[in-house]
Amino acid sequence: MVEKDQKLSNVEPFKTVLSGNREAIAKLSLHELERILFATLTGMSVDDFQAEVKKWLASAKDGRWKRPYTDLIYQPMLEVMQYLRSNGFRTYIVTGGGQDFVRVYSERVYGIPPEQVVGTATGTRYGYQKDGSPFLTKEPKLLLNDDNAGKPEGIHLMIGRRPYAAFGNSTGDREMLEYTGAGDGARLMMLVLHDDAQREYAYGPAQGLPETQVGTFSQEFYDEARKKNWTVLSMKNDWKLFAFDEKG
Amino acid sequence: MVEKDQKLSNVEPFKTVLSGNREAIAKLSLHELERILFATLTGMSVDDFQAEVKKWLASAKDGRWKRPYTDLIYQPMLEVMQYLRSNGFRTYIVTGGGQDFVRVYSERVYGIPPEQVVGTATGTRYGYQKDGSPFLTKEPKLLLNDDNAGKPEGIHLMIGRRPYAAFGNSTGDREMLEYTGAGDGARLMMLVLHDDAQREYAYGPAQGLPETQVGTFSQEFYDEARKKNWTVLSMKNDWKLFAFDEKG
């Protein structure tokens, strides 16, 4: 976009993103992230967006693990979903990430089809190409900010019933777990604490773990979880088989 | 609501609704219907709304057929959905009706669970009762007007992939059928024409059938369907077994 409009390179939040300074980027507010999302995706067709995501996933690699991002998933997460599905449950991903983005790889990577991904969603606009064929264009209208209170709101919008089990890993999952636990009968609420710097990362700041700007797990939230008898799993101590690289 | 605020009885569109004049009510614009929806439902909890719908469905009867509304469904519609499900398809209802309303009875009546109902949807707001338990409140914010272009937009939002088959019965289904037909490989597009005044109703105005204010099937749309080789079914001629009362 900057190639087409040089002025953008001096305007925030674009300036920060272009700097490549990951710490500064991590400090951008939701409003600033929305501005980037809307500026870069508005007017793009849904089909083009999906093609761009596929292309990016096929080439991009994580800086530390030197693997495609879709390889960097948790074996215990796959196993618990498989276990639930084998017992008649339908499994969903409820993510603060972009719904259209996650849907591109969710089936291949997690065995979860597009219709079972609830994420941050913008509107689309139906229109016609010159040859009369219809297509959908991404619009700068936020329909669902699927984090914190937006998670139960998104679950109601997209699924329409309360989960029997919910799994999270940050303070942004609090309301989803509360909502799940407020149902009648048996409900399962579990949280994963990223406390394994060697096999993955260690951050909190709960339990004295390092601070983080993304995916915060606060001490207050940790205490609430304990009080409500939600299970808090330690990646370091409770996960034996962690991920791909341990399977050889 | 009028019991609590007498002034409303002299204000449109409330005045028209309270008059009980069905013809006048049918002529209300979408904007006026939205005003009613927002005025009556805003601030109601999702649980209370569901309880109200259940209560209404259990007691209300159609004026002509003297049966609960959930009895007034089409046997061929049930059969085609059962046939598709038996062959590995997942069936959805995509309706201009209220998503939260239809979800209350869709599983019992059509065998379609809440998460497979895409309808006109308003937002909700997550909050807490005095005892700390969480609940969702209906908000006066229209997220999806699921008719006409809103149907493919809603399908993308809620399902995230293109249908293989789509069935409609009014001009409001045009865009959904176009979107379905634009997919690659084999796709099935079917429309039902309400031309059976004896067993159901007859309206169009397509094919010289009477005019209607709700669920219009225009001649232009009929001609488009023929041109695109969409199948137009006549309720009168193509449906042998029609509904409950013929099964005895």
The gist of it:
Chain A is of the alpha/beta class and 248 residues long.
How is the biggest beta sheet of chain A arranged? 3 strands, mixed
Shape of chain A: globular
Share in helix of chain A: 25-40%
Count helical runs of chain A.
11
Low-confidence stretches of chain A: none
- Strand element count of chain A: 6
Strand order of the largest sheet of chain A: 1-2-3
Radius of gyration of CA atoms of chain A, rounded to a whole number: 19 Å
Span between termini of chain A: 42 Å
Estimated structural class of chain A: alpha/beta
Averaged pLDDT of chain A: 92
- Fraction of residues in β-strands of chain A: 15-25%
Q: Which oligomerization state do the chains in this entry correspond to?
A: homodimer
- Largest interface between protein chains, with number of residues from each side: A-B, 33 and 34 residues
Task: Give the SSE string of chain A.
Answer: HHHHHEHEEHEHEHEHH
